[in-house]
Amino acid sequence: MENPEFEKSKAFIIVEILEYIPNSVVIKTIIKKTTGNVSAVSFDSGESLIGRTSPFDTFIQVIEGKAEIIIDDKTSLLATGQAVIIPAHSRNTITANERFKMLSTIIKSGYEDVS
Fold first, then answer.
1. What does residue 14 show for φ and ψ, rounded to 5 degrees?
2. Can you give the CATH number for the domain in which 43 is found?
3. Between the CA atoms of 31, 36, 39 and 45, what dihedral angle is there, to the nearest 10 degrees?
4. Which among 2-6, 30-34, 49-53, 58-62 has the top mean pLDDT?
5. Structural domains of the chain, count
6. Has residue 67 been placed in a domain?
7. 3-state SS, residue 34
8. Is the pTM of this model over 0.70?
């Protein structure tokens, strides 16, 4: 299902469509399809998404601020413009030591056996 809030073929500034809300993680879906989705996410300082897993690879790109991402007990600190791929089935935690915004992209296709 498409998100009616975002008009196709019309430019927008991703960091401006998402605000920070005190003591919250805000997720705004930009595109949602059966084959995957793209979401913009804001984290207030001190907030986390803890112990998550996905059956698909997840591409995370920090678009404002800094994030701490732990993938299978290995910690990465990402700043604006940096990205990481969280492998499918990996336990992960995303933490805001300071507030930040990120894009999360999950592609559900491509796991078929391709020869």
1. -60, -40
2. 2.60.120.10
3. 170
4. 58-62
5. 1
6. yes
7. coil
8. yes
Cα-Cα end-to-end distance for the chain: 31
Distances (CA, A) of 104 to 9, 84, 114, 115: 21, 10, 25, 29
pLDDT band per the 50, 70, 90 thresholds, residue 8: confident
- In sequence order, what are the residues at sequence separation of 6 or more whose Cβ sits closer than 8 angstroms to the Cβ of residue 83? 59, 60, 61, 62
3-class SS of residue 55: coil
Structural domain boundaries, residue 36:
28-107
User: Which distant-in-sequence residues (6+ apart) come within 8 Å of 52 by Cβ?
Assistant: 91, 92, 93, 94
52: in domain: yes
Asked if residue 44 is part of any domain, the answer here is yes
Residue 16 lies in a domain: no
Q: What are the E-state strand segments in the chain? A: 25-33, 36-43, 48-52, 58-64, 66-71, 74-79, 83-86, 92-95, 100-107
Spatial separation of the C-alpha atoms in residues 35 and 56, rounded to whole Å: 11
